């Protein structure tokens, strides 16, 4: 697809940009440009533009404001030793984007256009790559219903955009492992719902229990299934793995209520290559506690695009608390993180062809 290039009337001065990217945190600093493409039922995708990042004017009746027809993705660009930037499995994000679109009654965006749009923005705003240790350029492609009407039906007009944000570490530095609060009063998704789609409503549903977790001194909340309220599903934005003392690794299965994480899929492949037995099966909160207390469970790790691979050290809920292993990072968690981050940043071999250079 051909992108029209619009000039930026007032790009950020270099000294201001350098100060902003020195330690940007996560999700609060944004680059100068964005991608936008329009969709109409009669015309398909058109009007592809790369231009200044700016506010979006919406009619008060715009469908997304009333019926939440919206999806998004998250991926990162990494700097390699040779100075080039690379993307990690953007084709997988493109596929998942369209799976989410199916569930939300939205049009497919061609996968090659998705990947092209991300690459175009990274090229345009490469100077925004953060200088902080472990920094990356976080990319947020998203699509929403832009037709103005009141009536419960799929919209006939959509807008696709990509914005970029220089990112540091997702969790605060100095913390060896994250602490988890078990939500007993709230669920993230139910069978037949939108749990497997990356749509904003799923995250909106997690905000109250996440705030509850933070108020109790924890980093994240873990959700149980909506039916029996006993089976572990996922955190507010990350998948989970449980490492046993016999080398077996368990992760909850993708049954439609869990987001199919790209980091999750990558870890499963890496674990299998190390000769470990991976079981995608249900794992209960009671079993989690019992295995941790008996020593059968030696590590728990959370994974996602933003946090990559993160150890879980403590779990607490209304029924009490328990510690996993020593409460700090485990050997397998550290090894997997080093391998995956090394592949992403081009410091270790990439036999899978997961990284594409820009």
TrEMBL record:
<keyword id="KW-0032">Aminotransferase</keyword>
<dbReference type="InterPro" id="IPR018300">
    <property type="entry name" value="Aminotrans_IV_CS"/>
</dbReference>
<keyword id="KW-0100">Branched-chain amino acid biosynthesis</keyword>
<dbReference type="GO" id="GO:0052656">
    <property type="term" value="F:L-isoleucine-2-oxoglutarate transaminase activity"/>
</dbReference>
<comment type="pathway">
    <text>Amino-acid biosynthesis; L-valine biosynthesis; L-valine from pyruvate: step 4/4.</text>
</comment>
<dbReference type="Pfam" id="PF01063">
    <property type="entry name" value="Aminotran_4"/>
</dbReference>
<comment type="similarity">
    <text>Belongs to the class-IV pyridoxal-phosphate-dependent aminotransferase family.</text>
</comment>
<feature type="modified residue" description="N6-(pyridoxal phosphate)lysine">
    <location>
        <position position="198"/>
    </location>
</feature>
<keyword id="KW-0028">Amino-acid biosynthesis</keyword>
<protein>
    <recommendedName>
        <fullName>Branched-chain-amino-acid aminotransferase</fullName>
        <ecNumber>2.6.1.42</ecNumber>
    </recommendedName>
</protein>
<dbReference type="InterPro" id="IPR036038">
    <property type="entry name" value="Aminotransferase-like"/>
</dbReference>
<dbReference type="GO" id="GO:0009097">
    <property type="term" value="P:isoleucine biosynthetic process"/>
</dbReference>
<dbReference type="InterPro" id="IPR001544">
    <property type="entry name" value="Aminotrans_IV"/>
</dbReference>
<dbReference type="InterPro" id="IPR043132">
    <property type="entry name" value="BCAT-like_C"/>
</dbReference>
<comment type="function">
    <text>Acts on leucine, isoleucine and valine.</text>
</comment>
<dbReference type="InterPro" id="IPR043131">
    <property type="entry name" value="BCAT-like_N"/>
</dbReference>
<dbReference type="GO" id="GO:0009099">
    <property type="term" value="P:L-valine biosynthetic process"/>
</dbReference>
<comment type="pathway">
    <text>Amino-acid biosynthesis; L-isoleucine biosynthesis; L-isoleucine from 2-oxobutanoate: step 4/4.</text>
</comment>
<dbReference type="GO" id="GO:0052654">
    <property type="term" value="F:L-leucine-2-oxoglutarate transaminase activity"/>
</dbReference>
<dbReference type="InterPro" id="IPR033939">
    <property type="entry name" value="BCAT_family"/>
</dbReference>
<dbReference type="GO" id="GO:0009098">
    <property type="term" value="P:L-leucine biosynthetic process"/>
</dbReference>
<keyword id="KW-0663">Pyridoxal phosphate</keyword>
<keyword id="KW-0808">Transferase</keyword>
<dbReference type="GO" id="GO:0052655">
    <property type="term" value="F:L-valine-2-oxoglutarate transaminase activity"/>
</dbReference>
<dbReference type="InterPro" id="IPR005786">
    <property type="entry name" value="B_amino_transII"/>
</dbReference>
């Amino acid at each position: 697809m051909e992108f029209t290039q619009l000039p930026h009337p007032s790009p950020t001065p270099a000294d201001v940009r350098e100060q902003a990217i020195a330690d940007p945190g996560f999700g609060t600093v944004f680059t100068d440009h964005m991608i936008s493409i329009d969709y109409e039922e009669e015309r398909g995708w058109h009007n592809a533009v790369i231009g200044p990042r700016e506010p979006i004017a919406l009619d008060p009746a715009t469908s997304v404001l009333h019926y939440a027809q919206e999806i998004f993705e998250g991926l990162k660009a990494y700097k390699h030793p040779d100075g080039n930037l690379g993307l990690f499995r953007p084709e997988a994000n493109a596929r998942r984007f369209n799976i989410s679109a199916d569930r939300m009654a939205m049009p497919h965006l061609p996968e090659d256009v998705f990947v092209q749009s991300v690459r175009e923005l990274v090229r345009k705003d490469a100077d925004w790559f953060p200088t902080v240790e472990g920094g990356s350029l976080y990319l947020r492609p998203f699509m929403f219903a832009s037709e103005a009407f009141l009536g419960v039906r799929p919209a006939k007009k959509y807008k696709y955009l990509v914005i970029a944000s220089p990112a540091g570490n997702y969790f605060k530095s100095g913390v060896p492992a994250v602490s988890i609060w078990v939500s007993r009063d709230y669920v993230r998704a139910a069978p037949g719902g939108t749990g497997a789609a990356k749509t904003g409503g799923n995250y909106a549903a997690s905000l109250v229990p996440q705030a509850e977790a933070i108020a109790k001194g924890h980093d994240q909340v873990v959700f149980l299934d909506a039916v029996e309220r006993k089976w572990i599903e996922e955190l507010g934005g990350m998948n989970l793995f449980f490492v046993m003392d016999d080398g077996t690794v368990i992760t909850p299965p993708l049954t439609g209520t869990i987001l199919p994480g790209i980091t999750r899929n990558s870890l499963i492949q890496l674990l299998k290559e190390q000769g470990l037995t991976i079981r995608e099966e249900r794992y209960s909160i009671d079993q989690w506690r019992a295995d941790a207390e008996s020593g059968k469970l030696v590590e728990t790790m959370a994974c996602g695009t933003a946090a990559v691979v993160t150890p879980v050290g403590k779990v607490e809920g209304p029924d009490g608390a328990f510690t996993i292993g020593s409460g700090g990072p485990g050997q397998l968690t550290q090894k997997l993180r080093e391998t995956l981050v090394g592949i992403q940043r081009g410091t270790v071999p990439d036999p899978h062809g997961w990284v594409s250079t820009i």
